[in-house]
What we know:
The chain is mostly beta strands. The chain has 2 domains: 4-62; 78-237, Jelly Rolls, CATH 2.60.120. It is 4% helix and 42% strand. The strands form 2 sheets. Strands 6, 7, 8, 9, 10, 11, 12, 13, 14, 15, 16 and 17 form a 12-stranded antiparallel beta sheet that branches. The longest helix has 9 residues, at 192-200. The two termini are 47 Å apart. The relative contact order is 0.20.
Amino acid sequence: MSARLATATAAKAGSTVTAVVNGVATTIQVARDLTVAAGDVLMVERIGAQWFAYARVFPAAPVAPANDDPPPPKPTVTTGTLIVAPVETRSWRPSYGWRTDNTDVYQGQYGGWGNHTGAVFYGRKPRSLAGATVTRATIRVRRLSAGAYAPQSTTMRLMTQATRPGGAPTLGSSTAGPSIAVGATTTFVIPDSWAQAMVDGTAGGLAFFDSSGSPYVRFAGRGSWSPAFTLAISWRRG
Length: 238
């Protein structure tokens, strides 16, 4: 059998020493005139069932270069998509409060009946992803008859509340919302940061509001179309 290198774990005691051979602590017979201290690197050879040390090499146990260390394991990356149906869709007008005649999501004003804030509440389900990073988020939208038939510009807002408050909803950031014709359906991308705010618990839903009261737009709510405003959050951990 060819020679091996072994590292002594203690000084020679009598005629033997304990050393690590091939990763295993082993009792080794030592040549009579060979002095061994802990950390010495020995030249060893196996004869039958017994290992024998017959020389020392290196001044002491060598220090492995830093680049000999195995690389750290790569972090485990998990991805997925969470589907969140709104817990409620509803619209608010300052002089009348929350509409009770339907669950549709309105933006704007018709006649003198007040300027709507259409609201979509997502409850606590987005919080189930706490600690994850949002990579994409979309909503499903359908427009119903109201206002001009052609596509109309809407203003979408991030909303603080996750469930309907007694009074007006609290609105935050704004961005351009879906612009589709009456009868059209679309999947609309919302800002990743907005969905992240829902995951982190600092926001709870979406709203549609333009202070000018125009254009007047009506989106299907949960009572008119079951997929209405279903939120798909793509996420990553790790």
